[in-house]
Amino acid sequence: MTTAHMEVFEEELGRLEAALNRLRHDSNAKAVFLIDKNGQQIAAAGDVEDFDSTSLASLTAGNVAATDGLAKLIGEREFSVLFHEGKRDHIHISIVAKRAILLVIFDERSSLGLVRLRVKRASAEMDRIFDDMTRKSEQGPEGRVEPSPFAEITDEDIDSLFSD
Q1: Could you give the domains of the chain?
Q2: pTM of the predicted model, to two decimals?
């Protein structure tokens, strides 16, 4: 699977799903979603069939993008954590590895403090998984780092290409 300049390999997808399942269990959440910044679901755990995951993923990405805009307007780089409190259900949103969005849906069986604590631990684990994916995607089929196809192009080549 490829998401927003990120290739997700089967092994790492399994590790991400295991991390989401642990997070869901440890935080006593209803459902947990991992979404790319374009609004595509990467993985999920819990009672995901209770939700329109396609709409949830795209609206969450839009929410994060809008909040990033708000942060910049007031001079902040970003708001890394968002929380929405409802009557019955609550949503905790955080950025993972600067590449993905972690969405946790929980109710009165849990608390914001517990969710925040468990998200922090799960985020550290997912950061490592995303780092492994990056290293893996940069390596060739035999574990070698593949040279860039543009490495041989010089400034003179570019100048001659665009000069008349």
Answers
A1: 2-162 (3.30.450.30)
A2: 0.79
